[in-house]
From TrEMBL, chain A:
Residues 73-298 form the LUD domain. This is LutB/LldF family L-lactate oxidation iron-sulfur protein. PANTHER family: LACTATE UTILIZATION PROTEIN B. Residues 476-492 have a biased composition (Basic and acidic residues). The lineage of its organism: Bacteria, Bacillati, Actinomycetota, Actinomycetes, Kitasatosporales. Pfam families: Fer4_8, LUD_dom, LutB_C. It comes from Streptomyces fimbriatus.
Length: 492, 213
């Protein structure tokens, strides 16, 4: 993943800082609440939402189950339509392929459509090292790039910035990258959008190489689909002579008809629109319309490892709509940066530790970045049971076990730092299998309840740092049951 | 081993636990969702299209075949356009009442040249009522994708009711995936500032739709 995220602290530490940032909290609350209400309305407009969701889930599951077949079919149809297909097992390989393709054109700059896959592999940084400048053209990506910032949301990477901050960044930084911001720029969104239009237009008009991702790839026809709002996608997809698309292998759907499901569920889930302003579809190259050279880079980078996990593989159904971020109480308070990945929020908490493994501190902590409230599952348009995968990944972190990394089966050792938890569980198992000891222990606990501390000492302190210790009742349940004959003599 | 073989090998090993399933795709996925939402007459469908287009800030005009040239001339005049991009197969009659300079859609034109043209006029392939969407497929009366992108003012003529469908599934059925498609729902917009929709970024900031029928 992007180098900018390397060495991130674990989620609780990163989040602690974020929750004390009043501006950030305000920005996130405002944005997520706005979109939440709109999404509800947009979804309520279609009476068959549940059926669309189920169909989306099944299409994706079927595709994943036969992914090898559909990848080969896609390769054939893209090639037949005039495109060139490349395969990249990991980020480094994908970056090398794209760098080589750009160099072959003789150009030293590219315009980019917003793409999660290229962020995941750190393409901009890799190109920069080779002397190629990548211009982000999505408004939010532009804000992040100009502000030397990191993305904090899948759909709106600059969601943590309010209009005043955006104005500041534009006024200060645009001149470094090209056309400066207009004199007297105010913070009205329309003026900020206009400033971006003017700043980027010269880049679009001279661009010879475009780099994109794709929302969908249709195996039977070789068609790629990009869903967007601003028209920057259309600029990058049609004006340059060469187009390079880097797409995760899980983005395939089998047939053209399958788009009828996702083109209904994706816009309503992400921007809460009936339809997003622009959707482009292209199949290879077209004579005298758009790029003459089209390259598709199929990216694995941890996806096949995720596919190998029976429970976790459902994360690959994700269509990157970001509805789960917008409803998540943890995301709303902690913000996207705390997740230490280009994929923040609930989906990030199950995707990052699977794509990258759980070896780093941040990845091992992500499955815990949730209250398991289930709001994410409820809004997910492809019904990913995020809480189920979170619990599954917690188990993997604590207990270790067999996982797949870079295509190889390896055995994970149980995580360190869960010794107290494991000791407590062992003690519980011992007590619960010895009724006499349990009874004695419970009675003892009840009688000494006045002397119980409110917080735990030693390693238990972390647990009671954010919770009260539950009070012990005056009488154990089993004694009460016995004394009142199962509650019948309650008055006794 | 090539990366292709490596990735495909990983996929196959990852799926080793999955039982074999040879159900043909048509039967593998239940499609219990609707073909369209609600029942409408043809006229109501056209009305819904107009309503949804307007809801996303497209400017909608309605006329008949006889009035079209007059409407188009009026739109270009009001806009103050002195030039208009014209795809090769556009019905000449649509521009019969205006004298603005016609600029042909040619492969040789540079993006900078297109940027100097005030307006563009095209037909469309299909329009979707439920979502307020126009789909262009690069046919001769719609031209290359870029001509409806670079100029700031797009006039799109929709023949109603023939070109109007109710829903996304119906539209996909009519469209040819081999053609490069552009789906347009209102003028260019963004939700990137505080997740609030603002019209007008890189694509045409003014979209005028003329429903002819």
């Amino acid at each position: 993943m992007s180098g900018t995220f390397v060495g991130m602290p674990a989620f609780p530490e990163a989040a602690r800082e974020a929750v004390h940032d009043q501006t950030l909290r305000g920005n996130l609350r405002h944005a997520t609440h706005t979109i939440r209400a709109k999404r509800r309305t947009a979804v309520a407009e279609v009476s068959d939402w549940a059926e669309l969701r189920e169909a989306g889930k099944r299409i994706k599951d079927h595709t994943l189950r036969h992914l090898d077949r559909y990848l080969v079919q896609l390769e054939e149809s893209v090639t037949a339509a005039g495109g060139t297909v490349h395969w990249a097992a990991d980020a480094g390989e994908a970056n090398r392929i794209v760098t080589r393709l750009v160099k072959e054109t003789g150009e030293s700059e590219v315009v980019k459509v917003k793409s999660m896959a290229t962020q995941e592999i750190g393409l901009n940084e890799a190109l920069e090292e080779e002397g190629i400048r990548a211009y982000e053209t999505d408004l939010a990506e532009l804000i992040v790039q100009l502000g030397k910032d990191r993305p904090s949301h899948i759909l709106v990477p600059a969601i943590h910035r309010n209009r005043g901050e955006i104005r500041e960044i534009f006024a200060r930084e645009m001149s470094e990258w090209g056309r400066p911001a207009p004199e007297g720029l105010t913070d009205t969104p329309a003026e900020l959008a206009e400033a971006a239009r003017l700043h980027l237009r010269e880049k679009f008009l001279r661009a010879k190489v475009g780099v994109s991702g794709a929302n969908f790839m249709v195996a039977e026809t070789g068609t790629l689909v990009v869903v967007e709002s601003e028209g920057n996608g259309r600029m990058c997809l049609t004006l340059p002579e060469t187009l390079i698309s880097v797409v995760g292998i899980e983005k395939i759907v089998p047939t053209w008809r399958d788009l009828e499901v996702f083109l209904q569920t994706l816009p309503r889930s992400s921007t809460a629109e009936r339809m997003n302003p622009y959707t482009s579809t292209w199949t290879g190259t077209t004579d005298e319309d758009g790029p003459r050279n089209f390259h598709l880079v199929l990216l694995d980078n941890g996806r096949t490892d995720t596919l190998a996990d029976e429970v976790g593989r459902q994360a690959l159904r994700c269509i990157r709509c970001s509805a789960c971020l917008n409803v998540c109480p943890v995301y709303e308070r902690a913000g996207g940066h705390a997740y230490g990945s280009v994929y923040p929020g609930p989906i990030g908490a199950i995707l990052s530790p699977q794509l990258r493994g759980t070896a780093s501190e941040i990845d091992a902590s992500l499955p815990y970045a949730s209250s398991l409230c289930g709001a994410c599952y409820e809004v997910c348009p492809v019904a990913i049971d995020i809480p189920e995968v979170l619990v599954h990944l917690r188990e993997r972190v604590v207990q270790g076990g067999q996982v797949t990394r870079e295509g190889n089966k390896v055995v994970l050792r149980p995580a360190k730092g869960h010794a107290a938890e494991r000791a407590a569980m062992r003690a519980a198992r011992w007590a619960f299998t010895r009724p006499g000891a349990l009874r004695t222990g419970q009675r003892l606990a009840s009688r000494t309840r006045r002397f119980h501390p409110r917080t735990l000492p030693g390693p238990g302190r972390a647990w009671t740092g954010t919770r009260d210790l539950p009070p012990v009742p005056a009488e154990p349940f089993r004694d009460w049951w016995h004394r009142t004959h199962g509650g019948k003599d309650e008055t006794k | 081993m090539s990366s292709r073989e490596r990735v495909l090998g990983r996929v196959r090993r990852a799926l080793a636990d999955v039982p074999r399933d040879d159900t043909p795709y048509e039967r593998a996925v239940a499609r219990d969702y609707l073909g369209e939402h609600g029942e409408r007459t043809v006229e109501q469908t056209v009305d819904l299209l107009a309503e949804n287009l307007a809801d996303y800030r497209a400017i909608v005009h309605r006329t008949d075949a006889g009035g079209l040239a007059g409407v188009v001339a009026g739109l270009l005049r009001e806009r103050g356009s002195s030039s208009v991009l014209v795809p090769p197969g556009l019905d000449e009659g649509w521009l019969a009442a205006t004298g603005v300079t016609r600029v042909a859609d040619r492969a040789e034109s540079t993006p900078h040249e297109l940027d100097r043209v005030d307006s563009v006029i095209t037909a469309c392939a299909v329009a979707i009522a439920e979502t307020g969407t126009l789909v262009l497929d690069g046919s001769p009366d719609q031209g290359r994708r870029r001509i409806t992108l670079v100029p700031d003012h797009h006039i799109c003529v929709v023949r109603v009711p023939d070109q109007v469908v109710s829903s996304v599934p119906q539209a996909l059925e009519r469209l040819d995936p081999a053609r490069p498609l552009t789906w347009i729902s209102g003028p260019s917009a963004t939700s990137d500032i505080e997740l609030d929709r603002v019209e007008g970024v890189h694509g045409p900031r003014t979209l005028e739709v003329v429903l002819v029928g």
